[in-house]
Amino acid sequence: MQTSADRQDRHQYPAHWEADVVLRDGGTARIRPITIDDADRLVSFYEQVSDESKYYRFFAPYPRLSAKDVHRFTHHDFVDRVGLAATIGGEFIATVRYDRIGTDGLPASAPADEAEVAFLVQDAHQGRGVASALLEHIAAVARERGIRRFAAEVLPANNKMIKVFTDAGYTQKRSFEDGVVRLEFDLEPTDRSLAVQRAREQRAEARSVRRLLAPGSVAVVGVGRAPGGVGRSVLGNIRDAGYGGRLHAVNKAFPAHIEDVDGVPAHRSVRDIDGPVDLAVVAVPAEQVPAVVAECGEHGVQGLVVLSAGYAESGPEGRERQRALVRQARAYGMRIIGPNAFGIINTAPDVRLNASLAPQMPRPGRIGMFAQSGAIGIALLSRLHRRGGGVTGVTGVSTFVSAGNRADVSGNDVLQYWYDDPETDVALMYLESIGNPRKFTRLARRTAAAKPLVVVQGVGSAPQGHAVRATRLPHATVSALLRQAGVIRVETITELVDAGLLLARQPLPAGPRVAILGNSESLGVLTYDRCLAEGLRPSRPVDLTTGATAEDFHRALTRALADDACDSVVVTAIPAIGEASPGDAELAEALRSAAAAVPGKPVLVVHVELGGLAEALSAAASTAPQAVKAPGTEGGAHPFRPAERLRTAGVERLPIAGAERPVTAGAVDSGSSAATAPPEGTRLIPAYPAAERAVRALAEAVRYGQWRREAMDPGKVPEYDDIDEKGAARLIGELLARGEGLTISDAETCELLGKYGIPVRRALPAPTPDAAAEAARFLGYPVALKATAPHLRHRADLGGVRLDLADEDQLRRTYAELTELFGKPEELRPVVQGMAPRGVDTVVRAVIDPAAGAVLSFGLAGATSQLLGDMAHRLVPVTDREATSLVRSIRTAPLLFGWRGSTPVDTPALEELLLRVSRLVDDHPEVVAVTLEPVVVAPHGVSVLGATVRLAPPPARDDLGPRTMPAY
Fold it and tell me: How far apart are the C-alpha atoms of 798 and 818, rounded to whole Å?
């Protein structure tokens, strides 16, 4: 936005202060600086404020603003006087301003670091969290402008505004004088203020998604007059699913005499609908969408599901069309799923919404699903309805979101909703890209502490329709960071469903010890081998032989579950020869009853060609059919008949997309009959058609269970008395004053690191042999002679590093050799450094990634580790427990702990070094890169032999700043 040329601003318009925010009730608003062009908007806004609110703002009756007031409240220098407005539809709904003051309370300029702050919120929008959002943003602006403290004077009766300040979580003082409450609070974020901010963010974003998934009324815009077409199909899907709210069909081409479509009221425009519309499903060509959005916004629609294609996925022109769509919807306070979306589903009995292209409503269940791709969404729904590839274990869906280009609502928003959704126990996500990995990791860590989160992440470049922050981190590194946040990271859709079905109905294993039993020795051995490959600790398989009966399985499973040395059980089952065998349902009931006696341990089944068993395991005990027995076998115990299949009478058959033949409601076997839906809370036993799939799912559950236990005590970020944080900040400020971004000198690097208790072993330049000898005399023999030219730095394998030079003669001979081999001294840049105690050479790095945030990395130095990519990573700030695990996470970690009889090195000192580097980059976002190489870890202590630090101005906003929606 450009303001008039005659403004008296000392700074240009700060466009980076503009932001879209989600409010407490799930609606949206835009926050931006107030300029002199806003005079008319300010007057109109003030006219709509009640006399009581005006009195609270000015402490006296103040019916209208004078011309002087309007000038004052719209003319800002964006440094000492700043005003922000919250807007919807371009009109003000709230304002906030600060004025810098001195110790005498009069207007002042820097270095004064206090300001008075005041709010005014339109009465119709009070209670929506507008003031809280404005406070976060004005506080961030003030900190950027060097203001460290706010003061506010509030009338005692103005409880709402007092609560805004007191609930913010800042350190504050409160006094009462002359009938006015005076509040003073520091703007430095505290643990409590950040916690308050995160909690408000979660509630607001969760409610914004809830408004989309549980609307009281829905309009489908673009319903064709003839059967077929996207709009008509979605309308039918919503109606057939049994949606309990008000449903409307909209098409501007409807003739005047048409009153309904398939029994649904028909309208030519959203404006013609009598009553509120909470959700609009848009299925019109892209060029017609802006007019539809305008109609919806003017009618007060809360959210949109845009199925229309032709946006960012189609190229640059579509990308601009998508940006305009988001800006237009947000201007009206609406959120968008899409465009190019597949739709949304909510199976809750009081909602039953199928606003998607899926022809059938999924079976209700406890799994939440998110997919960016419509095709993958179809595949996920099908896998949970049928035995796609063989997996069984019937469960259903709580909610499903296919976000398409995810221009607005993303996986982060849906995670916020699932976090405290009582209907969702497990979250499955297919992510083609992660737009904000830093926020996703933060939300994933919190969600995973409450319920399992299973993710498939695309490896290639992001689809055209997705706005993604650039990242310098390899895909493997991002995946590792996700795992550290508790995400169950899998590679395929099959693994996603396999893990989801296990986690949805089985308890988490208490450890890696696995019992294996079954009627096939070879299948048991195969399962045993796969357990070893996945890092589990299996016991020797118990072979029940091919003649095992259901009772044999029951007894064996009961014994295994009762064994304190067992954390989980894998049952293997194959068909056996025998004409007079009991049915699959009998075996299923035997396994179920044994498992129910010990509910704290998970049970899985690996089966071969036993479709009936798979279905029977999915059925509830109370509805399981009786086994069909051969004549004369009543009460006998016999092997299983391979051809027997479970039969269930009176179950409705539903055609499922992707299945070759119809399957029954709640079924999971394409082309077969299915069990009836089990009662809520029934412990289902998942069955897998291959040992590797069952064991992989179990291994993921074991790792996740271990993460959950560790997450209960994540450790702490230690304090060190010798850290000089303020001194480091002054030094960084002085260095950055020289330029926007720079790699600081060796001396400056040593000084900065020294303020965080990280000494760097001194290296003196040696441009001549005489200089080298003088440096060695100063440092004391023995010394090392190193070439620091970029092509030779840290390359001992090339001969550019010579160690243990004991005297001057040896030093001069080595100097001559280096210059003879590699060139002139000015090309080599030789330095002399005192010898460090022998140990293991390692490297420590920290980098600020634009997408993931600050990342601390550790590995061994040298070509071998570089070739293997053997580096471990943690997100900053790192706790003491994380530092310990970081050191032990690399494959070459045994070299630190006495491998093959070597002396173990001082890993506690190494962990302290990692923690100090983490503190440095966490305390000072201007430190964008740190490399310590090599770091020699000796049996006693560590020595940093080389260090580089890069500085850059901190970002104006980051994940620690005020709440914002992705910019468009």
Answer: 11
